């Protein structure tokens, strides 16, 4: 039987997504064993979320007869059977943004990448030196605080200050554009790692979904696939490290906020990761959002405001605690992906996002863009 991608309390959740029915994408809602077509409600997820009554519209839609069976859609999605209705990434016109270095554990790994120039063979030695120098006290420092400024001064005097420490404990978080509009892949799809990369990893993350006013209206899961060797060579290569074919995975659904599920619910969410390789290798990880160093509101405010607007809303990766150091092949070189790795990211309230790693150059090309979406919407609305 196909594993469930639904949240533990799916019967009480407002789940919004996108489905390809063979002719193009449709906005859908899910409740129990039914997937409901929202064609008569909205043509895009972005448009729907701009409406103040979007929750009521979804709630009303799932009371009617479903268009597809949930299990059939999940099965087709995980098998990537494109001849049947299958799930897509649950956002469409939203810009895909991301925050980096929001947890001290991953902060230290970014410093290690920088110090080793992206060379995994030097990672273990660099990790030991940096942990000895910095210790674990950074986890209790509030970014941008006077205490953080004092730590910065001490580390600068020791020659240990880093650009990653700047965004990790400095006044401003790192916010960047992860992927172009419509380029993210959904559950079951391949996720891309370029052939040239020799040190890379998944990044299991909570992704907040906001409307054009910056109001967070729901959340989903994301895999911010990262090339550690590329970013380690230079932070100016961040675009090359982060934005490749199928390097942004989102899903399975956007869970909309309601009386029983709010932003506060997510402050203690545990996001679990499992990587299973064709070589028998297994890696388990955890992203504990209670340990994030900046509140969600601060990350959102750094993304949208008088300094930057998003007329169609945005999806915001919030960073990860997880930074894999488990050796896979060569002792001291840690973890890196291999083609065929199955990556499962799961949380209690958001369900499961499952993808399989492949070479970015060999995965299906991204060919459905904004012009195609507009043509499809024009054809289906007459």
UniProtKB/TrEMBL annotation:
A Pfam entry, by short name: FAA_hydrolase
Top-rank lineage group of the source organism: Bacteria
Claim: Chaperone is one of the keywords in the record: no
GO molecular function: hydrolase activity; metal ion binding
Domain Fumarylacetoacetase-like C-terminal: 171-357
SUPFAM superfamilies recorded: FAH (SSF56529)
Parts forming coiled coils: none
Keywords of this entry: Hydrolase, Metal-binding
Classification via Gene3D superfamilies: Fumarylacetoacetase-like, C-terminal domain
Any GO BP: small molecule metabolic process
Family matches, as PANTHER family: 2-DEHYDRO-3-DEOXY-D-ARABINONATE DEHYDRATASE, FUMARYLACETOACETATE HYDROLASE DOMAIN-CONTAINING PROTEIN 2A-RELATED
Recorded family membership: Belongs to the FAH family.
Protein name (Swiss-Prot/TrEMBL): Fumarylacetoacetate hydrolase family protein
Species for this entry: Amycolatopsis iheyensis
């Amino acid at each position: 039987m196909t594993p469930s991608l639904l949240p533990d309390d799916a019967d009480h959740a407002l789940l919004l997504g996108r489905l390809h029915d063979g002719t193009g994408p449709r906005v859908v809602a899910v409740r129990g064993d039914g997937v409901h077509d929202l064609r008569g409600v909205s043509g895009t997820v972005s448009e729907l979320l701009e409406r103040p009554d979007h929750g009521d519209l979804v709630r009303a839609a799932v009371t009617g007869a479903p268009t597809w069976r949930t299990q059939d859609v999940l099965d087709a999605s995980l098998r990537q059977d494109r001849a049947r209705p299958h799930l897509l990434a649950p956002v469409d016109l939203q810009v895909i943004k991301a925050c980096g270095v929001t947890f001290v554990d991953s902060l230290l790994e970014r410093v290690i990448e920088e110090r080793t120039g992206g060379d995994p063979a030097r990672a273990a030695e660099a990790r030991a030196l940096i942990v000895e120098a910095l210790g674990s006290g950074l986890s209790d420092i509030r970014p941008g605080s006077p205490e953080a400024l004092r730590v910065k001064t001490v580390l600068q005097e020791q020659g240990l200050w880093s650009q990653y420490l700047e965004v990790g404990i400095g006044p401003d978080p790192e916010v960047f554009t992860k992927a172009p509009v419509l380029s993210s892949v959904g559950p079951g799809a391949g996720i891309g790692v370029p052939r040239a990369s020799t040190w890379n990893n998944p990044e299991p993350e909570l992704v907040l979904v906001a409307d054009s006013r910056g109001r967070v209206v729901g959340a989903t899961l994301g895999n911010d696939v990262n090339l550690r060797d590329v970013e380690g060579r230079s932070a100016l290569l961040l675009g090359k490290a982060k934005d490749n074919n199928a390097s942004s995975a989102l899903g399975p659904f956007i869970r909309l906020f309601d009386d029983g599920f709010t932003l506060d619910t997510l402050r203690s969410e545990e996001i679990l990761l499992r990587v299973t390789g064709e070589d028998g290798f297994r890696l388990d990880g955890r992203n504990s959002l209670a340990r994030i160093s900046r509140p969600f509101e601060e990350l959102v405010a750094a993304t949208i405001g008088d300094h930057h607007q998003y007329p169609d809303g945005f999806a915001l990766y919030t960073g990860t605690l997880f930074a894999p150091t488990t050796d896979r092949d060569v002792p001291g070189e840690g973890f890196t992906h291999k083609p065929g790795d199955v990556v499962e990211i799961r949380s209690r309230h958001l369900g499961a996002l499952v993808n399989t790693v492949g070479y970015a150059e060999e995965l299906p090309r991204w060919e459905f863009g904004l012009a195609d979406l507009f043509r499809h919407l024009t054809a289906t609305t007459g």
